[in-house]
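re: ur question from yesterday

yeah so i grabbed the chain u mentioned. its 77 aa long if i counted rite. heres the sequnce exactly as i have it in my notes:
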Amino acid sequence: MSSIIEAHAYAQSFEASDTTVTNSAAQFSALLIFLVVMTLAAVVGVAFSAPIVTIAAGLITAVAVPVIVLSTMDTDN
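ran it thru and got these structure tokens back, copy pasting raw so excuse formatting
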């Protein structure tokens, strides 16, 4: 399977320098989707008076976002 992917990449003149942009875009999209999901979880927690859900969503977001941003910055350099 990987040889097929490599053959397609070679046929399309895919350069190794393109991977940084591709990875950054994918990580940024994943970060946005993650933030939307965590925001919805926090709103649902408030709506249903479930403070544990809201607190958990906030803590997960507070820890995960800086980690994702730092990993994205490391791959760009």
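noticed a couple things. The longest helix spans residues 18-47. also The chain has one domain: 19-76.
anyway ttyl
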